[in-house]
Design brief:
alpha+beta; 14 strands; five-stranded mixed β-sheet; seven-stranded mixed β-sheet; Beta Polymerase, domain 2
Length: 349
C-alpha cells in the first residue's frame, strides 16, 4: 500500500478510537493496541486489540473512507474469511440506516463520529445517530475520481494491465470515453494515491486490489443504472444454458457468467451485456420479449476493448464479481469470493 492511502487510514483509525472512548458508557475501561500486520490477499492489514473491563478482544480491522451499500457485501465476505478472530470495520461516518444493516449482519464497527457496534458477550455496545463532526464533513472524500467516466477508465485499466502506459488516445478508445477526459482523470487518480508517476511518461498503478474494491462499490450505484437497456423474459426456464452469445456481439454477465465459470449456482437473474446497435438482433435470436418484471436484464456495454478469449462469451471476471456483489445474495457472495480467488487475484493482488 502506498504511504498516502496508509496515512489516510491511520488518521481514520485514530479518530474512530478517540470517538469510541468518548461515546461509550463511562464505566467501560478501554485500552487499545494497534499492530500493523499484513495478511495475504483480501485480508485486513491491521490488528486492533481492545480491552474492555478486563476482557481482551483482538480484532482484524478493515478501514474505509466511507461506507456504501455494496461495501456491506464486501465486508460480509471479509468477515466470513476471518472466523478465527473477530472482525471490526472502521470508517469516518456510518448513518443510522447503515448502522442497522451492519448490526443485522453481525458486522462490528466504530466510526469517527462515535457510532459503534460491539458484540462480544458480556460486552454489548450499539451507538447510532451521532452526527459527523464538522471537520469530517468538510473533508469527506470528493468522489470525483469515481464518476461514471472515471469508472469506465478504471475498468479498462484493471482489465488491461499496462494500459496506463499507453497514449491517452488509446486509453480513451479502450474505455469508450472522450479523449479530453483522460488527462484530468489520470491526474485525479494520482491525487487519490492510485497512480505513481515514475518519470519519462511511465506510470505505475498502485493498490490495485483496493482500487478494484472501490470500483465494485461504486459501479452498481453510479455506472450500471445509466447503461440499463431494459428487462425482458425468455420463452422457458434454463434457455440460457444452451445459448452462446459471442456470435451475437453480446456476453453473459452476473449469475449466468458465474454459473458457467464455477458450476456453483443456478441463476435467478440473467444478465447480458451488449451494444445498443446489436440489441434487436439479440432479442430476435434469443426470442426475448419486453417485460418490466422479467428475469433478464440487458445492459449496454460500456467498454470498447476485446476481453480475454479464455472466457469466450463471458464478460471479464472483474465485472462478473461486481455483478454478484451488487445482488447482496449470500450464495452469490460466496461465488464472488471463488471467482476472486481463482480468476482475479493473480492479476491484481
Amino acid at each position: 500500500m502506498n504511504n498516502t492511502n496508509k496515512d489516510k487510514e491511520n488518521e481514520i483509525l485514530k479518530l474512530a478510537i478517540e470517538a469510541f472512548r468518548k461515546n461509550v458508557p463511562p464505566q467501560l475501561n478501554i485500552k487499545t493496541f494497534i499492530n500493523q500486520i499484513h495478511y495475504d490477499n483480501f485480508r485486513p492489514d491491521i490488528e486492533l486489540t481492545v480491552e474492555i473491563n478486563g476482557k481482551e478482544v483482538r480484532y482484524r480491522v478493515e478501514i474505509k473512507n466511507y461506507l456504501a451499500m455494496a461495501n456491506i457485501m464486501l465486508l460480509q465476505i471479509i468477515k466470513n474469511e476471518n472466523l478465527l478472530k473477530p472482525f471490526l470495520f472502521v470508517t469516518k461516518y456510518i448513518n443510522p440506516l447503515m448502522a442497522d444493516k451492519l448490526a443485522e449482519k453481525g458486522i462490528e464497527f466504530i466510526d469517527a463520529a462515535g457510532n459503534a457496534f460491539i458484540n462480544q458477550p458480556p460486552i454489548y455496545v450499539f451507538v447510532k445517530g451521532n452526527k459527523p463532526p464538522v471537520e469530517i464533513t468538510e473533508n469527506y472524500p470528493a468522489r470525483k475520481t469515481f464518476t461514471p467516466t472515471g469508472l469506465k477508465i478504471i475498468y479498462a485499466l484493471l482489465c488491461n494491465p499496462g494500459l496506463e502506459n499507453t497514449p491517452f488516445r488509446k486509453i480513451a478508445d479502450e474505455a469508450d470515453v472522450a479523449l479530453g477526459t483522460v488527462g484530468w482523470f489520470m491526474r485525479a487518480l494520482r491525487g487519490a494515491g492510485f497512480l505513481l508517476d515514475a518519470g519519462g511518461k511511465e506510470y505505475i498503478l498502485l493498490d490495485k486490489d483496493k482500487l478494484l474494491q472501490r470500483w465494485v462499490t461504486e459501479y452498481p450505484e453510479r455506472l450500471r443504472p445509466k447503461h440499463m437497456l431494459g428487462r425482458y423474459s425468455g420463452e422457458h426456464d434454463g434457455w440460457w444454458n444452451q445459448k452462446e452469445l459471442h456470435n451475437l456481439n453480446a456476453k453473459w454477465g452476473g449469475e449466468v457468467a458465474a454459473a458457467k465459470l464455477t458450476r456453483y449456482l443456478y441463476p435467478e437473474i440473467i444478465t447480458i451485456y451488449t451494444k445498443k446497435e446489436y440489441l434487436n438482433q439479440l432479442l430476435m435470436e434469443c426470442r426475448l420479449k419486453k417485460d418490466p418484471n422479467g428475469e433478464i436484464e440487458i445492459i449496454d456495454q460500456f467498454w470498447n476493448f476485446e476481453e480475454n478469449t479464455e472466457y469466450r462469451d463471458l464478460v471479464d471476471p472483474i465485472l462478473i464479481y461486481a455483478d454478484l456483489v451488487a445482488t447482496g445474495n449470500q450464495r452469490n457472495i460466496e461465488t464472488a469470493k471463488m471467482i476472486y480467488d481463482e480468476h482475479i487475484v493473480r492479476f491484481i493482488g
